[in-house]
Amino acid sequence: MIKLSGINKIYRTNEIETLALENVNIEVPKGEFLSIMGPSGCGKSTLLNIVGLLDSPTSGTVEIDGTLVKDMKDKQLAAFRNKELGFVFQSFHLINSLNVIDNVELPLLYRKMSARDRNRMAREVLERVGLSHRMRHMPTQLSGGQCQRVAIARAIVGNPEIILADEPTGNLDSKMGAEVMELLHKLNKEDKRTIVMVTHNEEQAKQTDRIVRFFDGRQVQ
Ligand SMILES: Nc1ncnc2c1ncn2[C@@H]1O[C@H](COP(=O)(O)OP(=O)(O)OP(=O)(O)O)[C@@H](O)[C@H]1O
């Protein structure tokens, strides 16, 4: 379970202070598919970065599976992020100079694991996302929807409990977007992964378990 309590985030640049999040309290039970919605600039990505341990709140606490994140040391934090969290971004963030399977293997490079095991695990998840036949392709040889499926394979290859997706269909046409959503639902239902997804798409959000809406850094349920 992810538990955010009294989260405030203030960005300070020169003289300007931006209150990006104000007193945010969210609990995401294990296995939930949660959507985060709200207009541009309301704090959605800030929130996802905090849940993803990529940024820390100015005040308030983040707890993941009973562990208080602020009590963790940097090394522990990096290991936790690598093991428990999978990230999916709007613009895929694949490495164009690596082929599909090498992209998928990347998160496993930080683990003590043989090349053979890495390869086996990457093949398994590529099969899961329906792309084993594109293993040796380069990202530039794939469609947007295929790129996002590779990115999802990379996010799940290390078996994380939690998938964080920041507008995963934002760069895709509706057909490819639907395919990616279908895959996320499958991972949620069949593999029981917790998913937190930022989206601007009302239809897609309605198909998830719950929507938390934001306006100007505040939750508006
Ligand atoms: N690194 C930063 N430094 C200063 N201000 C920032 C920084 N990142 C975000 N902000 C500000 O914090 C607020 C929330 O930004 P955030 O990116 O979380 O919004 P968002 O809801 O994800 O927007 P979008 O839908 O456009 O991606 C905005 O006012 C933004 O300008």
From TrEMBL:
The keyword Cell inner membrane does not apply. Pfam families: ABC_tran. PROSITE patterns: ABC_TRANSPORTER_1, ABC_TRANSPORTER_2. Keywords: ATP-binding, Nucleotide-binding, Translocase, Transport. Residues 2-220 form the ABC transporter domain. One of its GO terms (molecular function) is transmembrane transporter activity. InterPro entries: AAA+_ATPase, ABC_transporter-like_ATP-bd, ABC_transporter-like_CS, MacB-like_ATP-bd, P-loop_NTPase. One of its GO terms (cellular component) is membrane protein complex. Belongs to the ABC transporter superfamily. Macrolide exporter (TC 3.A.1.122) family. This is ABC transporter ATP-binding protein. It comes from Muribaculum gordoncarteri.
